[in-house]
Amino acid sequence: MADTDIQDIERRSKRVAEAKGYLQVEKKQAELDRLDAEIAQPGFWDDPGHAQDVAKRASVLRETLAEYNRAYGLLEDARVAFDLLNEDEGLQLELDASLAALDALLDGLEVSSWFSGRFDAGDAILTVNPGSGGLEAQDWTEMLYRMYTRYVEKKGWKAKVLDVVPGVGIGLDKAMIQVEGRNAYGMLRAESGVHRLVRISPTDDKKRRHTTFAGVEVSPVLPDDIEVDLNPADVRVDVYRSSGPGGQSVNTTDSAVRLTHLPTGIVVTCQNEKSQLQNKEAAFKVLKSKLYEIEEQKREAELAELRGQRMDNSFGSQIRNYVLYPYQLVKDVRSGIETGNVEAVLDGDIDDFVIGYHRHRLTTL
Hints:
It is built from nine helices and eleven strands. By secondary structure, it is α+β, with helices and mostly antiparallel strands. Helix content is about 45%, strand content about 20%.
């Protein structure tokens, strides 16, 4: 085998060693051992909220360590196949397969290492609201809602609908989902901001080009042990009949809940659970997440790191442009990532934009 092949093996070996360092494998193993010991204690599940947080953290650590160990194993397989090539040239296919799988795994580990923030590894609450553009904005909100639910499916995550409010005539007036999955919050932070759509309006009889906007907000799902200063007296609670599709009994009782935080003006609604109590609990969880973000902004005195900079849902403030006419192009204003395959993007293929944004963010720190 040529020297370049030897260099290929050594280059992968260096990447595996680097992964062990930036993943802090020994530290993660020690933390996992500590959490496993806690889980094994009698009475661990007496506090379900805390127990779920601990079990989820342990699961994330276990998965990361398993991926590193698999990468190390693939490297060893490649070394063995390389050493035996002179005896059996048929091992070339096995070597190539091992190196390709190793590269893909190392790429994934590198991306995961970017999400080291306090809540990056956890779940997220993603909200889409229409901006300027009237009915067009409502339709655009529904298109983005579908794009994100498809993205969640492709990632193997889970989406739980918290609130979907039909628009007047077409589209949606609001959509809010809880996304559960590894690094969901860390990844989805890339989507916070204003999204701009340019197309021929389906509601315009004259088939004119329209520009419309929608805003996306992403908040972390806070663990139960995070304290938030929330005075119940500051919250007005309204109940009403659900307007969404819902399930059995959802639309037949006043189960939907609207919370208004009087000091800040934040309004949170939830209507997709079957009972008023469940909707109220879910709404308070979202409200606490939003209030926590505000406090983080105050303490850090800089742009919110948890959701990104707030901007008006109008021209000139967008983070990404989606052009369907007179040409087809999706381009991220921040990273410069672009593609002409608009249909695929709207069907949830946005990983290049998400990862591209985070890579850009890290290089500009």
